[in-house]
């Protein structure tokens, strides 16, 4: 037997009357969804979380100011006579330093502001949400790398045309790979730290303090110095910018990336699928 009976009023907005006399709202008109949220829409939402927020916009503004200042200094010094690699470094280094904060806040802001409950209510499959964050971070990183390459090339061309600098476009593919990897891996590392800790101050402090702490420990302890050759990402990525890597250097780079990027991401994604939303 049905538990509700329709009200006999002729009003179009009639409500349903329950078995105990309570009134229930009428069903919302229109077709009901037959499928879950698409992965593309999840990625789009995560992109907005990264960039379309007050913190994200101010971070991008600060990043633009730093890059503009670095390029201005290069443009003025020595008549702008610097190789393309120097201009590219002036655009990629600030991005590699500041963009990981975007990845961190893309995760931690949901947990600190308690909007993760809304996210996981609309999409209960948390693994898909975590992968959407990874894809969104990669898209932001790729766009940043392309923009930095274009901006560095434009600044170098402007120095040649306006300041009479000698053009030096020589640059190896490994150096380009190093510049791109420095930005992308840093962004993914920040995302992994955010998933692990889910606390903005803790994740940011840990991300920036660990390299400094490792360098200090290596200067005081010889064993840490040897381990740093395999685990310190700042050191293992240096050969990329020099133009060539040996087999051992590739292995050192893969080891450091596995420890500081792949492992935090893997454990962080696993933890997000099981962490209680409070």
Compact overview of the structure:
By secondary structure, the chain is mainly alpha-helical.
Structure description:
It is built from eleven helices and three strands, in the order βββααααααααααα. By secondary structure, it is mainly alpha-helical. The protein has one domain (37-256). The relative contact order is 0.11.
What are its keywords?
single chain; 278 residues; mainly alpha; three-stranded antiparallel β-sheet; 3% strand; ABC transporter permease; transmembrane helix; membrane; transmembrane
Oligomer: single chain
Strand content: under 5%
Average pLDDT reading? 81
SSE succession: EEEHHHHHHHHHHH
Structural class by helix and strand composition: mainly alpha
Number of strands: 3
**Considering DSSP H and I runs of 4 or more, what fraction of the residues is helical?**
over 70%
Cα-based radius of gyration, to the nearest Å? 26 Å
Compute the number of helices: 11
What is the approximate shape? globular
* Largest sheet composition: 3 strands, antiparallel
Report how far apart the termini are. 39 Å
Q: How many structural domains does the protein architecture include?
A: 1
pLDDT < 50 stretches: 4-15
Strand order of the largest sheet: 1-2-3
SSE topology sketch:
Elements: E1 4-6, E2 16-18, E3 23-24, H1 39-51, H2 54-76, H3 84-112, H4 116-122, H5 126-163, H6 173-197, H7 200-220, H8 222-231, H9 233-236, H10 238-242, H11 247-272
Helix pairs in contact: 1-3, 1-5, 2-3, 3-5, 3-6, 5-6, 6-7, 6-11, 7-8
């Amino acid at each position: 037997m049905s538990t509700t009976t329709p009200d006999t009023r002729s009003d179009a907005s009639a409500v349903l009357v329950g078995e105990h006399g309570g009134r229930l709202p009428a069903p919302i008109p229109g077709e009901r969804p037959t499928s879950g949220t698409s992965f593309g829409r999840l990625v789009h939402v995560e992109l907005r979380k990264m960039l379309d927020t007050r913190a994200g916009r101010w971070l991008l503004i600060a990043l633009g100011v730093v890059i503009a200042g670095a390029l201005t200094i290069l443009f003025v010094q020595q008549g702008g006579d610097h190789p393309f690699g120097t201009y590219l470094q002036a655009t990629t280094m600030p991005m590699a330093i500041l963009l990981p904060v975007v990845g961190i806040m893309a995760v931690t802001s949901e947990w600190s502001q308690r909007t993760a409950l809304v996210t996981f209510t609309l999409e209960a499959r948390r693994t898909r949400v975590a992968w959407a964050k990874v894809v969104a971070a990669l898209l932001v990183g790729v766009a940043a790398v392309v923009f930095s390459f274009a901006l560095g090339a434009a600044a170098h061309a402007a120095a040649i045309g306006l300041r009479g600098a000698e053009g030096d476009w020589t640059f190896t593919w490994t150096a380009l790979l190093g510049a791109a990897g420095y930005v992308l891996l840093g962004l993914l590392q920040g995302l992994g730290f955010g998933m692990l800790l889910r606390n903005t101050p803790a994740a940011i402090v840990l991300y920036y303090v660990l390299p400094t702490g490792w360098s200090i420990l290596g200067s005081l302890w010889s064993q840490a110095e040897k381990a740093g050759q395999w685990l310190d990402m700042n050191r293992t990525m240096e050969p990329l910018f020099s133009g060539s890597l040996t087999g051992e250097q590739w292995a050192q780079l893969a080891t450091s990336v596995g420890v500081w990027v792949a492992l935090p991401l893997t454990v962080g994604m696993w933890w997000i699928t099981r962490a209680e939303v409070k």
